[in-house]
Structures are given as structure tokens and as C-alpha cells.
Design brief:
single chain; about 500 residues; mainly alpha; Growth Hormone, Chain: A; about 0% strand
Length: about 500
């Protein structure tokens, strides 16, 4: 109980120190300027890394394994987001941010100096550990100077800020559950992507062993979460709220469509349209441009009409239309305009859905649960995005070889045809056209799967209740339980702790 009291004291201190009513106009302008600038840098970093990774993959004849990088990143995000969030309260946010950025830089250095796919993957692993911390704590990075200033200002008027300890971190973070979750996802997902590279495909003993081990680890994880864990990653007060879970599930399934439909898209454009990666990136930019344009417009409309669900549904309808249009738009013979237009339509829909879902999540919980709800959204998004990347990798590596055998007449180097875009572009006719037809078939299957996922996302949002955006913070806190919900979770945690202690005795 003393620990709970200390946490409440720290949260009370932070709330008073960062009270908006105590900010000067200059402090607020600096805060918003830093927010915009840091958000821009984060977006540039993410999109640039996502685009250029195909170039070294092609040099290392590994383009068909493009799904491995996002899968690794998503698995690490699932495990590390709660750890970064909690450890920053112990070690310090500035220190954790510094460590995360240092790891990201080291990872990029390893990637740029890599000579093979394995080294590139290791560099990506290290960079992902760092970027996960960056993305988790970017709200602090966004305004590091004004926040430090306001914290020092608070210490002068409110006294020294309460600090949490490593013992608190050990109690709050489920290390065993995190390890089991990472092992489960890795053992189940990576074999599905890499099976084609092993002799015998899915009949290879290594692939079979990994899948079986993953199934066993999954059972252990479920048992651990049901009977032994003290602090589950998904608190009951979050997953039991149908509006929050409806918004989260709708948003992440919508995100799965994007993840699945873009994993091999750049490589596909380069091969089927006989262009370089620079032009392929430009053709695909319609999605990002439309996404960023519609986001502030959606925010203005939600504020005007005090509604979220209608914009989620409108966004999903637009996204469904755009995804269906993508099926013919991504055929090898379609025009560049058709490709760019379909990208923009999907971007409009996804941008509207994502923003409205986030507002629905934060508008359906107590203010103290904002971070937890967003973390749950990020973790579940990462899990299902890793599923989407795995499905995309499995479909691509399994279907493309079959379609190559169906279309291509004569002998060909399957490994280089699947993994080196420059090699494919240099193939003589009619073999080049036959390979393009095979690529078109594989991409069409991914587009059809993606279109069906948008419908699933719509079904999840039907469970949502209306979110009242007219409430201020105090009214919203009173509506969603506030201290009562926190107290119930604390009591449940205490009961589980006592049970574990008694078993140990």
C-alpha cells in the first residue's frame, strides 16, 4: 500500500507541475513548436528507413525475405514498450531516451557497413530496440526542453519530485511474460517466412521443430497469464471496455491491411514496371500524403460535430473502396496514375480511421489510463502487424515460386528471380514478361486478402459505444470510475501477490 501511495504522490506532483493553467504563452508556444518539429523528424526517419531497406536487400539477393525486418520490429515493440515506459520512471526519461537513440545509431551503423543479409538483420535488430524506445517515449522527446524547464519550475514550488525504485520496476513489469511472448511470436512467425529457404520447405526438421516449440511456448504463455502473472500487460479495465477494444481492434486490423499490402510493394513496382526504386517510392507516396492531409481535417470535424464513430466508419468505407480499387490498379499493365490514385484513396480512409480511433480510445478511459490504453493499442497493433507481415512473407515466398513455374517457360534461377530486381529487369523477352505475370499473380492475392481485412475491421467497430467528446477532463474522469478502477486493480494485484507468496512458503 505504501508503494501505491508513493505512485499516487508522484502522479499528483506531475499533474500539478505540468498544469496547463500555470504555463506562460511563451512556454506553450515552445512546447508546440518542439512537438511539431520532433514529430516531423520521427516521421522522416521512419519512412526513409522503410523505403531504402529494399536497396540492400536487393544487393544481398534477399528481397523475398523483406517481411523479416518489420516482423522483428513489431515483436520488439510488443515486448519493449511496457518496459521502456516503466523503466523510464526509475532510471529517468532523459537517460532512457539517450540509451534508445544510441542503440538506434549503432544499429544504423551496423546496417550501413553490412556485407550480407545476416549482418543487415542484426543491425536492424539493434536499431529496432532503439527506435522502439524512441517511439514509446517520443511524447517526452517532443518537448524535452520545456518539460525539463517545467519540471525544474515545479521542484522550486512543489518540492523535489518523488522517484520510483528498481524493486517497483520488478513488481510492475512482467519479465517472464515478455520473454514468453517474444519467444512465441518468433518461433511461430519466422519459420513461415523463411521456410522456402530451407531444403524441403515446411517438411524441414528445423522448421517443424520451431513451429512445435512455438505452439508449446504459446500454451505456457497462456497458463502464465491466467494463473501466475501479477501485472498482466493488458489490464482488465482496458480489455473489458467494449468501446476501447472496438476502437483498438478496428484500428489494428485496418493497420494490418497496410502492413500486408506494402511489404513487397516497392519491389513489385520495380520489377513489373521496369523502374528504379526512386520512382517506385514516388508512386507509393500518395498514401502518406493523403494520410497527413486528412488527419487535421478529421480532427477539426470531430471537434465540430463531437463525434468519433461516424468518422471511423466513413474512413473504413473509403479504405474499403480504395483497397478494392487497388486490386486492378496494381496489375502490371495499369497506369501510374491509377496506382497513385488508389494509394491516395486508401491513405484518406486509413488516416481518418486511425485518428478517430485514437480519440475514441482516450475519450473512453480515465485520464490516468491514457498511457495504458495507448500502450495496449501499440502492443496489439505490433502483434497483429507482425502477423500481417508474416502472412505477406509466407504468401510471397510460397505463392511466387508456384506462379513462376506456371508462367515461365524454360530454365531460370529461382533464387535470383525472387530476390534481385535488377536481375529480373535484365531478363530477355518473353521471359521477363512471364516473370512479371507471376509477380502480378502474387501481388493480386495479397491485395485480395487485404481487402477482406478492412471488412473485418468494420465488424469490430460495431461493438463501440458513442464517445461523448463534450466532457472535460474532470467529467470524463468521474464517468469512467477514476480511483475506483485503480483501487480494484490494486486489490487484485495484492491478492495475486499474496497467493504467489503463500505457494512459495
Amino acid at each position: 500500500m505504501a508503494t501505491d501511495q508513493k505512485i499516487l504522490e508522484e502522479e499528483s506532483w506531475s499533474g500539478r507541475a505540468l498544469d496547463r493553467s500555470k504555463w506562460t504563452r511563451k512556454e506553450f508556444i515552445v512546447l508546440m513548436t518542439c512537438a511539431i518539429f520532433a514529430s516531423y523528424l520521427f516521421s522522416v526517419n521512419y519512412n526513409l528507413n522503410f523505403m531504402i531497406i529494399n536497396i540492400p536487400l536487393g544487393l544481398f539477393n534477399s528481397l523475398s525475405l523483406a517481411a523479416i525486418a518489420p516482423t522483428i520490429s513489431n515483436i520488439l515493440t510488443v515486448v519493449l514498450v511496457p518496459f521502456y515506459a516503466k523503466s523510464s520512471d526509475v532510471i529517468g526519461r532523459a537517460e532512457i531516451i539517450t540509451i534508445a537513440l544510441l542503440l538506434q545509431v549503432i544499429g544504423y551503423i551496423v546496417q550501413t557497413s553490412s556485407n550480407n543479409f545476416e549482418q543487415l538483420t542484426i543491425g536492424g535488430l539493434v536499431a529496432s530496440i532503439g527506435s522502439t524506445g524512441y517511439s514509446c517515449l517520443q511524447s517526452v522527446i517532443i518537448a524535452v526542453s520545456p518539460l525539463w524547464y517545467l519540471q525544474r519550475k515545479g521542484e522550486k514550488t512543489l518540492g523535489e519530485r518523488p522517484r520510483r525504485t528498481f524493486s517497483w520496476l520488478w513488481q510492475q513489469f512482467d519479465f517472464v511474460g515478455a520473454i514468453l511472448l517474444a519467444a512465441t511470436l518468433s518461433l511461430l512467425f519466422f519459420p513461415l517466412i523463411t521456410a522456402r529457404t530451407y531444403e524441403g520447405n515446411f517438411k524441414n526438421p528445423i522448421i517443424i521443430g520451431c513451429l512445435c516449440a512455438g505452439a508449446v511456448t504459446l500454451v505456457v504463455l497462456l497458463v502464465w497469464n491466467a494463473k501466475y502473472t501479477i501485472k498482466p500487460m493488458l489490464p482488465k479495465r482496458i480489455w473489458s471496455d467494449r468501446t476501447v477494444m472496438g476502437a483498438i481492434c478496428g484500428s489494428i486490423v485496418s493497420g494490418m491491411m497496410v502492413s500486408m499490402n506494402y511489404t513487397y510493394f516497392y519491389n513489385y513496382l520495380v520489377v513489373t514496371r521496369n523502374i528504379d526504386f526512386d520512382k517506385a517510392y514516388l508512386l507509393a507516396r500518395g498514401y502518406q500524403m493523403a494520410y497527413y492531409i486528412i488527419a487535421p481535417i478529421t480532427g477539426f470535424l470531430m471537434r465540430k460535430f463531437l463525434a468519433t464513430r461516424r468518422f471511423i466508419w466513413i474512413g473504413l468505407i473509403i479504405q474499403t473502396i480504395g483497397t478494392i480499387i487497388m486490386i486492378p490498379a496494381r496489375l502490371p499493365g495499369s497506369s501510374d496514375f491509377f496506382v497513385a490514385a488508389s494509394q491516395a484513396i486508401v491513405g484518406l480512409g486509413d488516416g481518418m480511421t486511425s485518428l478517430a480511433s485514437t480519440v475514441s480510445i482516450t475519450g473512453s478511459v480515465h485520464r490516468r489510463d491514457y498511457a495504458m490504453a495507448i500502450s495496449v493499442n501499440l502492443m496489439m497493433t505490433s502483434i497483429l502487424n507482425s502477423v500481417a507481415s508474416t502472412v505477406a512473407g509466407s504468401v510471397w515466398t510460397q505463392v511466387l515460386p508456384q506462379r513462376l513455374k506456371h508462367h515461365v517457360v524454360g530454365e531460370y534461377d529461382e533464387l535470383r528471380v525472387m530476390n534481385n530486381a535488377d536481375f529480373v529487369k535484365e531478363l530477355p523477352e518473353p521471359m521477363y514478361s512471364q516473370v512479371v505475370a507471376a509477380y502480378g499473380d502474387a501481388q493480386k492475392i495479397l491485395s485480395i486478402i487485404s481487402a477482406s481485412l478492412v471488412v473485418v475491421a468494420g465488424l469490430f467497430t460495431l461493438m463501440m459505444k458513442k464517445v461523448d467528446l463534450s466532457l472535460d477532463h474532470e467529467a470524463q474522469d468521474a464517468k469512467f470510475g477514476g480511483e475506483v478502477a485503480i483501487k480494484k486493480d490494486a486489490e487484485l494485484c495484492a491478492e495475486k501477490t499474496e497467493a504467489v507468496y503463500e505457494k512459495g512458503m
